[in-house]
Design brief:
Layout lengths: L7 H24 L3 H5 L9 H20 L31 H21 L12 H23 L22 E4 L2 E5 L15 E5 L2 E4 L5 H9 L11 H9 L8 E4 L2 E6 L2 E4 L11 H10 L7 H9 E2 L4 E2 L46 E8 L19 E8 L16 E3 L8 E2 L3 E3 L4
Parallel strand pairs: 10-13
Antiparallel strand pairs: 1-4, 2-3, 4-14, 5-6, 6-7, 8-9, 10-11, 11-12
Amino acid sequence: MTDPAFDADTLRERALTTLTTARARTTLLTSCVEEPDLTAQHSPLMSPLVWDLAHIGNQEEMWLLRAVGGREAMRPEIDGLYDAFEHPRSERPSLPLLPPAEARHYASEVRGRVLDILESTAFHGTRLTEAGFAFGMIAQHEQQHDETMLITHQLRKGPQALTAPDPDPVPLFTGPSEVLVPGGPFTMGTSTEPWALDNERPAHRREVPAFYMDTTPVTNAAFQAFIADGGYDTERWWTPEGWAHIRQHSIHAPLYWHRDGKQWLRRRFGVTEVVPPDEPVLHVCWYEADAYARWAGRRLPTEAEWEKAARHDPASGRSRRYPWGDADPAPEHANLGQRHLRPAPAGSYPEGESPLGIRQLIGDVWEWTASDFLPYPGFQAFPYKEYSEVFFGPEYKVLRGGAFAVDAVACRGTFRNWDYPIRRQIFSGFRTARSAGDV
């Protein structure tokens, strides 16, 4: 009997839905500002928004029209312009990029042809087409750039251009501050998730000693206590590299925060507001997260600890797709998809908690872990080395769990993100852990 989840019509509908959802988000992010804001570089860390727009179309053309559909190249002369490895972000404004109207037309024309390919593609026969992988990969790619473009919007100076309803208010969380995760083996990674990317594979057994994990991400109020206690001015909480970095760049608070008398304010998408005490702290780098954990007498969880807390079901011994089970994320489970433009208060989404009662492991903020970005045993690069393999090594730290800016198609219990430990413009927060033997 065929698994209904892999039925061709179901896969085709899923691919269509995820591609359509991604394009709607791309359209919003690139239509809410005027042309000068699309072509400007708002930070040397980010591309002009118009580069992202045409890059999305170019990747879709290369993988879905050319590789899957066997079609001739539409615009081969622009491939180099939109090759992320050929041109670092700081150089992209000086390139002869497609202007906004032409970039929109190109991406739209590619999508129209892709929908024809989707109608005729058999979801078997090659690794690219098996279970619609290539379509899922491109939907994830576009949503990842939608997250990148939202980061650019946050960096952009000027009036508010994006709005969204706030998450529902919740009573102040009064549950336990930490949860014991029992020791023992669990299955990490996946060999069965059809749209999982190469660095999530293959599934393998990991032995993880017992540890305690924070029930919720670290909040703004908790982080303010670290600041008030001189956390940024006390060298012993920092790694040597972290201490040198915050001294060199005069960092004294999370990115976008500033002090106004006795209160902390932040800038969020063009609006200045009081820092909400009960939200997970946002826009901190790995060094800041690590220093806070040391100050609190704790540590950052390893990547294996994080995934065990998020996926392992002690009752069945099985690793689930998500903390709440195998069902795709729904609004009651997690804060995803840019439907809100901020984290929900700590303790939100009880229906999304893990079997052990840990909340908000998916959505709200990316969570820094203690681990370097390394391949799993048996890793094989697919479909190209530049997605993961070239980034493996101690230069990058792993983040897990997604954020409010991340779409569900690009967020799983196995999904791995990575970045330099100095990065703060990303939607990053953290939670802490301690070994079960620690007092």
